[in-house]
Amino acid sequence: MSGSTNNYSDKEIATNLLITLKHMKSEYNTFSQEVSNEELFKEVDTLYQDLSAQQRKVYEMMKEQGWYKMTSDSEKNISKAYTKFSKMEDELCE
Fold first, then answer.
1. Which of 19, 40, 44, 58 is placed for a possible disulfide with 32 were both Cys, Cβ 3.0 to 4.6 Å?
2. What is the Cα–Cα distance from 42 to 46, expressed in whole angstroms?
3. C-alpha angle 6/66/64, rounded to 5°?
Protein backbone atom coordinates (compact mmCIF):
# COMPACT_ATOMS: atom_id res chain seq x y z
CA MET A 1 0.00 0.00 0.00
CA SER A 2 2.02 2.87 -1.21
CA GLY A 3 0.51 6.01 0.19
CA SER A 4 -3.12 5.13 -0.49
CA THR A 5 -5.61 6.21 2.15
CA ASN A 6 -9.25 5.45 2.60
CA ASN A 7 -11.33 8.46 3.47
CA TYR A 8 -14.47 7.24 5.17
CA SER A 9 -17.18 9.69 6.13
CA ASP A 10 -18.33 10.02 9.72
CA LYS A 11 -21.62 8.40 8.70
CA GLU A 12 -19.82 5.36 7.22
CA ILE A 13 -17.69 4.98 10.33
CA ALA A 14 -20.72 5.26 12.63
CA THR A 15 -22.71 2.78 10.53
CA ASN A 16 -19.84 0.30 10.60
CA LEU A 17 -19.49 0.75 14.37
CA LEU A 18 -23.22 0.20 14.93
CA ILE A 19 -23.18 -2.98 12.82
CA THR A 20 -20.11 -4.25 14.69
CA LEU A 21 -21.70 -3.54 18.08
CA LYS A 22 -24.87 -5.40 17.02
CA HIS A 23 -22.85 -8.46 16.03
CA MET A 24 -20.77 -8.35 19.21
CA LYS A 25 -23.90 -8.01 21.32
CA SER A 26 -25.41 -11.07 19.65
CA GLU A 27 -22.29 -13.13 20.32
CA TYR A 28 -22.06 -12.01 23.95
CA ASN A 29 -25.74 -12.82 24.43
CA THR A 30 -25.27 -16.38 23.21
CA PHE A 31 -22.10 -16.82 25.24
CA SER A 32 -23.65 -15.49 28.44
CA GLN A 33 -26.62 -17.84 28.12
CA GLU A 34 -24.46 -20.91 27.53
CA VAL A 35 -21.61 -20.35 29.99
CA SER A 36 -21.65 -22.90 32.82
CA ASN A 37 -19.70 -20.93 35.42
CA GLU A 38 -21.78 -18.42 37.42
CA GLU A 39 -18.89 -16.02 38.01
CA LEU A 40 -18.01 -15.97 34.33
CA PHE A 41 -21.69 -15.49 33.49
CA LYS A 42 -21.78 -12.35 35.65
CA GLU A 43 -18.65 -10.95 33.96
CA VAL A 44 -19.94 -11.65 30.46
CA ASP A 45 -23.37 -10.28 31.35
CA THR A 46 -21.75 -7.05 32.55
CA LEU A 47 -19.89 -6.77 29.24
CA TYR A 48 -23.17 -7.43 27.41
CA GLN A 49 -24.85 -4.58 29.30
CA ASP A 50 -21.92 -2.27 28.47
CA LEU A 51 -22.18 -3.19 24.78
CA SER A 52 -25.91 -2.49 24.88
CA ALA A 53 -25.30 0.97 26.32
CA GLN A 54 -22.63 1.75 23.70
CA GLN A 55 -24.86 0.52 20.89
CA ARG A 56 -27.67 2.76 22.12
CA LYS A 57 -25.34 5.78 22.29
CA VAL A 58 -24.17 5.24 18.71
CA TYR A 59 -27.76 4.74 17.54
CA GLU A 60 -28.93 7.94 19.29
CA MET A 61 -26.00 9.91 17.84
CA MET A 62 -26.80 8.65 14.35
CA LYS A 63 -30.46 9.59 14.79
CA GLU A 64 -29.49 13.09 15.95
CA GLN A 65 -27.26 13.50 12.89
CA GLY A 66 -30.09 12.36 10.60
CA TRP A 67 -28.14 9.26 9.54
CA TYR A 68 -30.60 6.73 10.97
CA LYS A 69 -34.13 7.58 10.03
CA MET A 70 -37.16 5.76 11.29
CA THR A 71 -40.26 5.68 9.14
CA SER A 72 -43.73 5.32 10.52
CA ASP A 73 -46.08 2.66 9.23
CA SER A 74 -49.84 2.50 8.94
CA GLU A 75 -51.92 1.30 11.87
CA LYS A 76 -53.15 -1.55 9.67
CA ASN A 77 -49.61 -2.88 9.09
CA ILE A 78 -48.71 -2.46 12.76
CA SER A 79 -51.86 -4.35 13.76
CA LYS A 80 -51.06 -7.15 11.29
CA ALA A 81 -47.54 -7.49 12.66
CA TYR A 82 -48.83 -7.51 16.24
CA THR A 83 -51.37 -10.22 15.39
CA LYS A 84 -48.74 -12.31 13.60
CA PHE A 85 -46.30 -12.21 16.50
CA SER A 86 -49.03 -12.72 19.09
CA LYS A 87 -50.04 -15.93 17.29
CA MET A 88 -46.41 -17.06 17.20
CA GLU A 89 -46.09 -16.37 20.93
CA ASP A 90 -49.25 -18.35 21.64
CA GLU A 91 -47.94 -21.30 19.62
CA LEU A 92 -44.65 -21.26 21.51
CA CYS A 93 -46.42 -21.18 24.87
CA GLU A 94 -48.67 -24.17 24.13
1. 44
2. 6
3. 105
Pairwise CA distance, residues 13 & 69, whole Å: 17
**pTM for the structure as a whole:** 0.69
pLDDT digit of tens for each residue in the chain (94 aa)? Answer: 455 567 999 999 999 999 999 999 999 999 988 999 999 999 999 999 999 999 999 999 999 999 988 888 888 888 888 898 888 888 888 7
Sketch the domain layout of the chain as residue ranges. Answer: 10-93
Query: Which amino acid does the sequence have at 65?
Result: Q
Instruction: Calculate the alpha carbon distances from 94 to 66, 87, 89, 91 in Å.
Output: 43, 11, 9, 5
